[in-house]
């Protein structure tokens, strides 16, 4: 599924500061200028997907499990089991019955299965048409190759479609933003390390940074409670990872981690203002 390689190629330096002499050296990260690059051609309006490894995929009911094995198994279910069943009983199933059966299978099935979370949440008429087209155009001799599975995947196609927006939507929707108005440079404040600078005039009230939030879930504090053995002091002890400092939530809520680092600059200032999009702002398409 991934079409980008996220946060790689970081540069390590202390912005001219000495680790043992400058008090400001610990106030900023020494890693900077990491890149996110496309690993394949990406169409305008497509959602960006990064791969972080199967170990980061949550094992909880309701979560969509987009591991390759799960999407492949969902494709096998559609192509080898569900579609043949529908075609076998085509004379007995009306269009309304087909839609109801698919609604039950893809959304309301009472038994949780990880691979079933990838079944397309689209009308069966659309899924059936693409499935038949996919089967007709897939080379039979290459069906089991990894590359061909991804190229002819029904589940991957609809997941990508769910996240795709038209250029008109991106240009007119209130939650579509371009962030080319800021750039990182060495700070003009002594001992501050690196700072964010405006690349053009920003009128009063301009929203300086935007970031989607990653919902870590109710077990976030357990995930980031790191175990140390004889590190810093003898014996076993636990300490929260520093990512907690850059996240949102409190002791009675789940946790949200910014996907981008815009919230890190000027974090000590009382003049900063943070706001969230409303549910009305998040209307799809």
Identify the notable features of this structure and list them briefly.
single chain; 285 residues; alpha+beta; two-stranded antiparallel sheet; 7 helices
Question: What does this protein look like?
Answer:
- By secondary structure, the protein is an alpha+beta fold.
- Helix content is 25%, strand content 15%.
- It has seven helices and ten strands.
- It has helices spanning 68-88, 95-106, 124-137, 146-151, 154-162, 167-172, 220-223, and strands at 4-8, 11-12, 31-32, 35-38, 182-186, 194-198, 213-217, 225-229, 236-240, 255-258.
- The protein has a two-stranded antiparallel sheet. A two-stranded antiparallel sheet has the order 2-3.
- A hairpin with a 6-residue loop joins strand 8 and strand 9.
- The longest helix is centred in the N-terminal third of the chain and has 21 residues, at 68-88.
- Residues 265-270 and 279-285 have low confidence and may be disordered.
- Total strands: the figure is 10
User: Helix count?
Assistant: 7
Shape: elongated
In the sheet with the most strands, the strands line up as 1-4
Oligomeric category? single chain
- Mean pLDDT, to the nearest integer, reads 78
From N to C, what is the helix and strand string? EEEEHHHHHHEEEHEEE
Low-confidence runs of at least 5 consecutive residues: 265-270, 279-285
For the sheet with most strands, the description reads: 2 strands, antiparallel
Measured as a percent range, the helix fraction is: 25-40%
Computed Rg: 24 Å
